[in-house]
Design a protein that fits this description.
about 35% helix; six-stranded mixed beta sheet; about 475 residues; alpha+beta; about 20% strand; globular; four-stranded antiparallel beta sheet
Length: about 475
């Protein structure tokens, strides 16, 4: 395999075509269905699908078939099939839907306003993970341009990932006969510990979330009249959240939200900690004087990948501070997000969360928890020797350092689904979301050199996969 030719092909494709296409993609506010219930009427998702479809059809991939699959009442899905030089199959995955805008973008940047600054392309969705389709097809195209054989490739780009991929199982079932039984699954929707090597994701946390509501009064009343008599709904919310976590340490309390960390993952965390050091926490935009919950990199890596963590991600019933009168409010509601270890069942955890929060409501007030999101995590199978060698070789060739492996704190529902459906398959889960890339938040960016190198690495793995499995 001529690595220089692969690199040259990929560099040219990105510079002449992919970057400009991603710039136009950023302009489309195609928020995921959970954040835009009127997505069909607004048409933004269809615009994104049309751009992706048009670009893919322009690629000189031998025998490629492409279909925009639309099941009634569901978000669309791009399905591409590229014949290979063997009957084996590789499934490649990405998504095109986006998180909402989020506040806090620095001056000159915005979620739907693409800005190219040096190696960084700012804007919502390009790194998480609009680039994935371009990287997948670019990798296959680089192999074909250099007459390097590969297995049959199936590329799936969904439009529901940021909402929990609840449409995807229906498509996978619908397309099962056309997909077949892949021996390798590649997903490009994950992160990287740095931009200096190829990162393989070994596990993903699960997630449950919902709305915790506390109602005390039927209407707000004067705080001078009621204060000290009527319990404040916000205080009750605080009290209920303290049932879930220790507010002094952030430690989640219920043992049902924990899982035993495998020995292999403990060793892996130690190795990764040695590679990243303080970067595991210094990458975050702490205000002056603030810092992490711990400074031990190994413990922080395990916290992020294998331990539960609670966040309050939204609130209702709280007026803006500039418009807050002296009123004891009738109710408070908060949106909770509880990250779970990879092997904890999300349905069981969600029911446990509801039970803890709703049991014995303080002062007899009305407390309810409505679960609205949930997905179990995923722990990767042991890497086959050929894939482990391939990742190290690819990373050394294109990044200059061996591959690294780390559990991620995020959730990709698709992976658990694939793991159950294809238990014999090998997995490469990787991505470009490294330090400061800030997916879901303000100032999200795609680190273009890393995306190019990752494209090359995918090509390398596809070639090695073919040589490993043969015709």
């Amino acid at each position: 395999m001529d690595k220089a030719s692969i690199r040259s092909h990929v560099e040219r494709l990105w510079e002449e075509s992919v970057v400009s296409e991603l710039i136009e993609y950023i302009r489309i506010p195609n928020k995921s269905v959970a954040f835009d219930r009127e997505w069909q009427a607004h048409g933004h998702m269809d615009r994104a699908v049309a751009r992706f479809e048009a670009w893919a059809r322009r690629q000189p991939l031998k025998g490629m078939t492409l279909e925009v699959v639309r099941l009634a009442g569901r978000t669309p899905l791009l399905f591409m099939e590229i014949p290979g030089d063997s009957n084996d199959c590789v499934l490649l995955y990405g998504h095109m839907d986006k998180q909402p805008e989020m506040t806090g973008w620095r001056p000159g940047l915005g979620p739907w306003d693409p800005v190219l600054e040096g190696d960084r392309l700012y804007g919502r969705g390009s790194a998480d993970d609009g680039y994935a389709m371009f990287a997948c097809l670019g990798a296959i195209g680089a192999l074909q341009a250099n007459s390097i054989p590969h297995a049959r490739c199936v590329v799936v780009i969904e439009a529901c990932e940021e909402s929990g991929s609840f449409d995807l199982p229906h498509y996978i079932e619908h397309l099962a006969g056309r997909i077949g039984k892949p021996s390798l699954c590649i997903a490009l929707d994950s992160g990287c510990g740095n931009y200096e090597q190829l990162w393989s994701t070994t596990s993903l946390r699960g997630l449950v979330g919902g709305k915790l509501s506390v109602e005390v009064l039927s209407e707000g009343v004067h705080s001078g009249d009621a204060g000290g008599i009527v319990p404040d709904s916000f205080r009750i919310v605080r009290q209920l959240i303290s049932r879930i976590e220790d507010e002094a340490t952030g430690k989640v309390l219920a043992p049902e939200f924990y899982a035993k960390i495998p020995d292999a993952r403990l060793k892996q965390a130690s190795v990764t900690a040695a590679a990243l050091g303080a970067d595991i926490y210094s990458k975050f935009p702490f205000v002056k004087g603030a810092g992490p919950v711990d400074t031990d990199p190994t413990e922080l890596i395990l916290n992020r990948a294998w331990r539960p963590a609670l966040s309050v991600i939204g609130a209702d019933g709280l007026p803006a501070t500039a418009n807050a009168g002296n009123v004891l409010r009738a109710s408070t509601a908060v949106s909770l997000s509880l990250r779970l270890p990879p092997t904890v069942d999300a349905k069981v955890a969600s029911q446990k969360l509801k039970t803890i929060l709703e049991k014995d409501p303080p002062y007899g007030c009305k407390v309810s928890f409505a679960a609205n999101w949930g997905a179990s995590g995923w722990d990767a199978p042991t890497l086959a020797p050929w894939l482990e060698r391939s990742l190290d070789t690819a990373s050394s060739d294109y990044f200059g350092k061996p591959a690294a492996h780390m559990g991620e704190g995020g959730t990709i529902p698709f992976m658990g689904m694939l793991g159950e459906r294809f238990p014999e398959a090998q997995f490469l889960i990787s991505g470009v979301l490294g330090p400061h890339a800030n997916a879901h938040g303000p100032n999200e960016f795609l680190h273009i050199p890393t995306a190019k190198k990752l494209t090359c690495c995918v090509a390398n793995v596809l070639a090695d996969h073919f040589n490993r499995t043969g015709s």
